[in-house]
Write a structure and sequence with these properties.
The structure holds 2 protein chains of 2 kinds.
Chain A (H helix, E strand, L loop, with lengths): L1 E5 L3 H10 L3 E5 L16 H13 L3 E6 L8 H14 L3 E4 L2 H10 L5 E3 L8 H11 L3 E3 L6 H10 L4 E8 L3 E6 L1 H6 L15 E6 L2 E6 L2 E6 L15 E3 L2 E3 L7 E3 L4 H7 L3 E4 L6 H21 L7 H9 L6 E2 L9
Parallel strand pairs in A: 1-2, 1-15, 2-3, 3-4, 4-5, 5-6, 6-7, 7-15, 14-16
Antiparallel strand pairs in A: 7-14, 9-10, 10-11, 12-13
Helix pairs in contact in A: 1-2, 1-9
Chain B lengths: L13 E4 L8 H11 L6 E4 L12 H13 L4 E5 L7 H11 L5 E4 L2 H9 L4 E3 L8 H8 L3 E4 L7 H13 L6 E15 L3 H5 L18 E4 L5 E6 L2 E9 L4 H7 L3 E4 L5 H12 L38
Parallel strand pairs in B: 1-2, 1-11, 2-3, 3-4, 4-5, 5-6, 6-7, 7-11
Antiparallel strand pairs in B: 7-10, 8-9, 9-10
Classes of the chains: A alpha/beta, B alpha/beta.
Chain lengths: ~325, ~325
């Protein structure tokens, strides 16, 4: 299985490749990708360097152009596609059907991957994208159980890529408007989810309150670890109870599923986190490289080393990891 | 299809009733629709779009209801497909729905688009399809789309912009149906929040959604309405209401206004009917309309009427 790692900067591209990524995915510094954070992502010149760095080491470089095109702004997305084709990017990760149509007609040689933002969760939807746009791979949303992934992989007309580690989106990606409802920033339309610009921390005695566009997402007592106010991970009131009504802060970690994902025929494992630091990318990539190499060597004898789990737990939200929807009871 | 040169007037607006997003007992649902067929509704969408475990109504029940409503001769009937298709059984149900042979289908997943376009059937593109631009609309027009329900987060300016792109490309516009009233369907998850709330596994949910005919309200720790849980669906905490924005809806290209039903839908339909006929909008309470105005969805932007308490429902 190919290990696909995130990079939010040229430094992160280099580090991910040194740490063992088979492929690195990046975005441009504008609203054409779904991780638009200040100071993050690459400009055209850096993208050219990133491709050169990857190709010098015989690794692959993918460009995510995975937001939906807004009326009147299509040129920016089309320029991103043109840039990818011109610079020899190894695959373009796209969600918008208008853009898929454009890219497949104009640059038929440029491999297209369906972004997780395309929200294709079943073989029939994948067949739609494959037939019309010739996609060569699809990234599956994090809502499927392992059995469902197996079924989709078996019937899919294209190889599938699944998320292995990182933030746990519990909504079907590309079908979540929670962020735009509270903050006006829509991940589908090039905004960040729960954008940092909307966050305000407020101290009230010993208690730390986290607000998003002034909406109280959570309050932390001194003995509680204060997490970033991602809106689906806040503590809210339901029927008189205060609870994580939607989801607890935890990260997805599927390292012990490696043999099964491989058995299912999954083509690639994706690590989430273009917004993370190069140091984070390095640690996660190293662990996953070791684990995939250990699996390649040991096959059925593969065992998760405690050190891997410890490292990954230390990099996780609330120090918690979960198998998420891959593990059916979680659903 | 619309002639782009024709500009609608408020009284040309058609009213639709979206599919019931909540899980109601069969007798409640049938009584509800018996009332709805008496109302000035132009389109009625039927079917379960949220969760395949909800089986108060069988496929046969839905088709029977569809025939009854169509037989009453007032409203066009459309069958709505599920939004999040995960299991093979859900996919085969969707295929059967698309092959029903009688009624138009609203596609809420690309799987439905493929089923329908294979049969060369015209279809409605529902709000769960990510269509935000002229180029993406053009793709689905080529597949047989005749009506577009934009994603609920779309501002009016985006809707108008996408239509203008079609005009510029000399493509006929689809009909445009805007989500004009109701709790906004915001997200779909693998996880069932209603089951989780009851400490039950999704596979053994006990169909608890049936206890919440208007969903489960979620507020902030300060009591501000945020979301409404509806099984695997997360909805807005406030009801979205564009009744005060009808002039702008018309100007931006809307042909049909969708009312997403709660148990009080009759009152809402009558208010919309009155306002499209020239009456004043009722005063707003907690409703939001931010999305249409390019703001956070939960915001309220002053509408076209003085919000002085004049009441079209009075």
């Amino acid at each position: 299985m190919e290990l696909v790692c995130p990079a939010g900067s040229l430094t992160a591209v280099k580090i991910a490749i040194e740490a063992g990524a088979d492929a690195v995915y990046v975005g441009l510094r504008d609203d054409t990708n779904a991780r638009r954070f200040a100071g993050l992502n690459l400009d055209a010149r850096e993208l050219e360097q990133a491709v050169a760095i990857a190709h010098a080491r015989r690794r692959r470089l993918f460009l995510a152009v995975n937001t939906y095109v807004r009326p009147g702004a299509g040129e920016r997305w089309e320029r991103a596609v043109e840039l990818a084709a011109t610079l020899g990017v190894d695959a373009l990760i796209v969600a918008d059907i208008g853009l898929l149509a454009h890219a497949s007609r104009r640059y038929p040689e440029l491999p297209l991957h369906l972004s997780v933002q395309g929200s294709a969760t079943n073989p029939e939807a994948l067949a739609f994208y494959q037939e019309r746009y010739g996609i060569r791979r699809a990234v599956l949303p994090r809502v499927l159980s392992l059995a469902q992934v197996a079924q989709v992989a078996r019937e899919s007309p294209v190889p599938v890529e699944v998320f292995g580690f990182g933030s746990l989106c519990i909504m079907a990606e590309g079908r979540c408007h929670l962020s735009s409802y509270l903050t006006g920033e829509s991940p589908n339309l090039g905004g960040a989810c729960s954008p940092a610009s909307a966050v305000r921390w407020e101290r009230d005695g010993d208690v730390l309150a986290a607000r998003l566009n002034e909406v109280l997402i959570d309050r932390f007592e001194p003995d509680e670890r204060a997490g970033y106010p991602t809106l689906c991970k806040g503590r809210f009131m339901v029927e008189g109870r205060r609870l994580h009504a939607i989801e607890e802060p935890a990260s997805l970690n599927t390292i012990d599923l490696i043999p099964r994902l491989s058995g299912i025929g999954v083509a690639a494992i994706k690590i989430e986190g273009r917004q993370r630091s190069p140091a984070y990318v390095e640690k996660v990539t190293r662990v996953w490289r070791e684990a995939l190499d250990a699996f390649a060597a040991a096959g059925d004898e593969f065992e998760v080393r405690p050190q891997w789990s410890k490292t990954l737990a230390g990099l996780s939200e609330g120090s918690q990891t979960t198998l998420g929807a891959y593990h059916r009871p979680w659903q | 299809m619309n002639d782009k040169s024709k500009v609608n007037a408020k009284e040309d607006l058609r009213l639709s009733l979206g599919p019931v997003l909540f899980f109601w007992p069969k007798d409640v649902l049938l009584d509800f629709y018996a009332r709805m067929v008496e109302l000035p509704l132009d389109v009625i969408y039927l079917g379960e779009t949220v969760c395949s475990k909800r089986r108060e109504m069988s496929r046969k029940d839905w088709l029977g209801l569809a025939r009854d409503i169509a037989g009453a001769g007032r409203a066009e009937v459309v069958l709505s497909g599920m939004a999040l298709i995960e299991a093979a059984s859900e996919l085969s149900s969707l295929r059967r729905l698309c092959e029903n042979g009688e009624f138009t289908v609203e596609a809420n997943d690309m799987a439905a688009v493929r089923f329908l376009s294979e049969q060369r059937l015209p279809f409605v593109a529902g709000p769960a399809l990510n269509l935000y631009s002229g180029a993406s609309l053009a793709e689905l027009l080529g597949c047989g789309m005749t009506r577009w329900v934009p994603p609920v987060e779309c501002p009016g300016a985006l809707v108008a912009g996408a239509l203008a792109e079609l005009d510029a490309a000399n493509l006929a516009r689809p009909e445009v149906e805007v989500f004009a009233h109701g709790y906004l369907p915001l997200a779909y998850s693998a996880r069932c929040f209603t089951a989780r709330l009851a400490n039950r596994a999704k596979d053994d949910c006990g169909f608890r959604c049936i206890d919440y005919p208007a969903g489960v309200p979620v507020t902030s720790q300060e009591g501000e309405p945020l979301f409404t849980l509806n099984g695997v669906q997360t909805m807005s905490g406030r009801i979205s209401d564009l009744l005060g924005d009808l002039g702008d809806l018309v100007a931006k290209g809307a042909d049909i206004l969708r009312i997403s039903p709660g148990l009080d839908a009759a009152e809402v339909v009558e208010a919309f009917d009155r306002v499209r006929g020239g009456g004043l909008a009722p005063p707003v309470a907690d409703e939001c309309n931010g999305y249409w105005h390019g703001r956070p969805g939960m915001d309220r932007v002053a509408g076209e009427f003085p919000e002085d308490g004049s009441d079209a429902r009075a």
